Amino acid sequence: MAKTLYCKKCNMDVPEGEACPVCGKTPPASSMRVAWMYARQRALDWMSWNAVMRIAVPVLSAATVLGLVLELLLGGGAGVRQLLNSGFLWVMGMLLLFVAAVTLLVFALGGADELYCVVDSRGFHVRTALPGANRVKLWMHGKSAALMDTADTNGRVILSEKDLAWKDIARVQLWTDKRLMLLYSPRWWMKLSVPILLAKWNDVLTMVDEKLGKKKAVELPEDWVHQLPPQRVQEKKTRKTALETDVIPPQTTLPEDEEDYRPLDEVLEELRGK
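The structure assignment produced for this chain is given below.
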């Protein structure tokens, strides 16, 4: 199924135009959504690494600059040269490699997780779950072992839930080759990264265009129109043509001969005579 209607009562996705097979009711059109599950290996996932490195790299860089500035203030240029010759930069580089090695170990021990993604009338929703959870895996995800008490019958534990409303999205970026959508709020801060299955890609783009395509405050990719599926592009062209047709005022029938016109003075004189 691509776009579906969501039956809240039965917690079930229903194909468009069909009734829920459990309760027999047809969900409202406002419940339209696109939902999918994405299995993720964090050790092989770029955005998992990005979440760590966009903190580690600035911190180590700031520490390096701070060390050089302090040495410059205390020892002058000679002190800076001595610090560099002592292997200071090599030590900072080794620290970065150490952080990367520890991160890789943590990702490997934490195992694969599952991202349950939904795009609906409210916005984006991403729920991260850990299948086959145990204490070690939870620790490697930075979670307490107490979450084991919330595991379902399959041993699956919900690690986090993230929501981003349409009104809060300031910028959208696409990594088409990776089927990845980056959402920013505000414009300079990446709030949510959403991996999208190939089968859902066009439907997600269509929903985003429906909600954000006309908002001037939202920054979309320069090639956004070229990314949209042909069906959506044609739909927008048809709608634009219809709107342009509606705003054209009806043609006024002009008199065929100037004798059909009566001067305003004659009309006023006739009215006074009455």
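Interim note for the steering committee: The helical segments are 46-85, 88-110, 135-140, 201-212, 224-227, 230-247, 264-273. The radius of gyration is 31 Å.
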